[in-house]
Structures are given as structure tokens and as C-alpha cells.
Design brief:
The chain is of the alpha/beta class. It is about 30% helix and about 20% strand. It has two domains: about 10-75 and about 320-435, Lyase, Ornithine Decarboxylase, Chain A, domain 1 (Beta Barrel); about 75-310, Alanine racemase (TIM Barrel).
Amino acid sequence: MENINASRIEVCDTNCLKQADTDNFLSLPLYSPLPQQVAVVPDGTTSIEAARAVTARNEGKGDWDETFMIGDLGMVFKLYKRWNRELPRVELFYALKANGLRPVVNTMAALGCGFDCASKNEMALVLGCGVKPEKIIYAHTCKMMSHLTYARDHDVELMTFDNEEELLKVKKIYPTARLVLRLKADDSKARMTFGDKFGAPFDYCKYLIKKAKDLDLDLIGISFHVGTGCPGLEAIATAIEESRMLFEFARDVGFAFTLLDIGGGFPGTEEADTVLPFETVGFTTAMAAIIRGELDKHFPEECGVRIIAEPGRYVPGRAFGLVTNISAKKVIKDRMIYHVSDCIFHSFFLCNLESVKLRPVPLKPGKEKLHPTTVYGVSMSGVDVIEKDTLMEEAYVGDWLYWKDEGGYSALIRYGFNGFTMYKACYFISESDWKELQSASLYPKLLPDTRDFI
């Protein structure tokens, strides 16, 4: 497809095609309570092409040298469809913490997805989008009392726990809650682990099941999380098997468990999907196939157990790119050194913690020669190094760099180190994806609004 420029991208409207105008809504804060509209653009428009059009249209404007996100909601929809195709028995409860931008939430809500919320604010955001309380799991095992009270007052019944004190707290504040016990899974090989902080060891789970019975609480199932970036699937297979054993133990105690929550940790970037593919390609046995087999073995369909999962970055990770502006440049021998409009204390903080290799691409195509490149963040911190050693075409002050697969855990911090913020986000979807999304939505009134964009 030929390059698309700002003058050619138009919004596909049911009545007419109109030249786009972003002056108003692109300057809204990321978490603005106002609607954040989505552009419907011609089929084949890529995120990089859309980003080029945005920067071209806003060139020379006073505040247009700061980071912004570009999100393809068509990709969110495609990943949702892939999930249902590969794991048809597993209901998707989107982990809002990964990306709480309103158009993403609206899209998932319209499709009938559930939501994993960990705080009062997350529950309020989802409920404010029109999601019913029964489509929310309050997935924090150690809840603040005021947040637990909020859940009670707004009929969010489903919630997790992993310790005795939490049971006593729930008994006091919300005794009619529907509880899910979080089992500690083996996440020792994962890139980011959770087991030291969340989850009860197997034998302690048995004690907690008995305690819940003694307290006359409504315990309905088991959850677990094998960590992020787990290199193999032995851990999830073991966790599913141990969950079945706890189902049997609970039955002997007097409970009839009805829910299994297999957590998150699903690949949210192209690189992660290559290392451990989600779906089977050729002769490669993929994550979803292994999970299907283990669920069919230990929780066959006829047993009637409801199965859910809490994917986070899987949903928006590949759908969003991050666009940073080059504010300064140095050349030392053959090495290019750039300072950009974001930092590891803001959009890149999780990538830095997980030691992910980042490969920025200049929006403005340069010479073919690649140079050793270091990219520093905008803050005054000496450790603010976004990418220490990558190869990239030469770029210049004022140019833009595109970072792909940045939809998960990037738009989190409102005010960053030294007060630098990232507050713009642009959303688009192709005309054909938009039509299909409207047809597939169970609650089309919850879909984000569309309007002029670029």
C-alpha cells in the first residue's frame, strides 16, 4: 500500500467522507471523563501511517513535541476474536490495569467481556462505561476496606482472596460476596513473578477452604496466575491439576465449586507471541492448545464449571504504538545518542523492569545505513536509559520515533519524573473492522463514538 499522508486520511462516515480535525479531542487527558472518539479510516491504514498523518497535521503547533499513543481498535477486536477461536470455553475478563483508556474499555464492554478490576477507581471506570456488576471480578487478594465497601455498595460480588485475615475482613464488611481462592502457582521461571506477593500455597488453600466454611462464606472456586513471560507451560498445567484437587477437597468440606480462573500472563507483544505462540502455527504446539488439553482433561465441559481468564496486555499490547519526539541529539564517533519526550519513569517503566529489547523506528524514513544508537529519556535522572544499544537509521531533532507493541502498561502514570507527562492518545479503526465490530457487539450502545480524526 502506498504511503498515506495527512491530506488523504479521511473518516469513513455512513453519510459522507469528511476531512478530519483533531484539535479538540486529541488534547484531552488520557483519563478524561469526556468521550474519546475513534476515527474510522480506509482499510489498510497502518499505525505508522496514521502516526505520520497525525504529526504532519499538527506540525508547528506549540504543544506538539510531546509523546502520544496511536491505537488500532481493529487489532483489539482481532485479538478478541482469536481468543474466542482458540479458547472457546474460557471467558475473557480483561485486566483493566494493563490499559484503562476509555475506547479500549468501551470496545471490550460492547463485546460482552468481563473485567478484572483491582481498585475502587477501576470498578468505577468500568461501571461508568455501562458494564454490569456481575461482569466484574474484584481481583485483589488484599483489599483496602474502603474499596471493599465500594464493591459492596455497587453489587460487585465476585472477588479473590488468599489469606485468613481477608476472610475475616470480608465476613465483617461484605458477607454475601462470592469468593474465589487464589492458589499460588509456580512462577519461578516467569519474567515477572507474583507468587511471593499473591496466592496461597496448596496446603494452606485447604485450611482456607475449611475456614471459609466455618465462617459460612460463599466460596465458589479457585484462581491462579503463573506470572508474565513464563517460558513454558508446565506451570499452568500443574496449576490446573492442583485446582481440580482443591475442587475435590472443597466438595468433601461441603462446597460445590463452580468457577475456575486461570489468570493472565498471555503474550501481548509480537516478540512474546513468537517465543511462546498463543495459537498453533504449522507444527508448533501453542499455548492455547496446551491449555485446551489440560482443561478438557481436568475440567471437561460436561462438569459444568465456568472458566474465566484475566488477560491484560494480551488485549491492547499489539494494538498501540507509542510515538516520541526527539528533543536532543549527540553524535559520538559512529554512535547516535538521542533524548526523547518520554522516560523509564513513565511509558517505558515496565519495559525497563522486564529488560525488554526495544527497537524504535523513525516516522520519517532516512538513509538505509544503520547506526549504533542509544536513546535517553526526558528526565534528569542518570539511569533514564530507554534503549542502550540498538541499530537505527539516523534521525534529527524534531523527528518522531515509533515504538510498536506499547499498549500494555504504558499509559499509567499521569505525572512522571520532573513533571513530564504523556497526555495525548489517538484511536482509529478500519472501515471493514468497524462494520464487523458493530455487528459482533452484544451491546453496540457501549461502543466508543466515531468522529473526525486526522
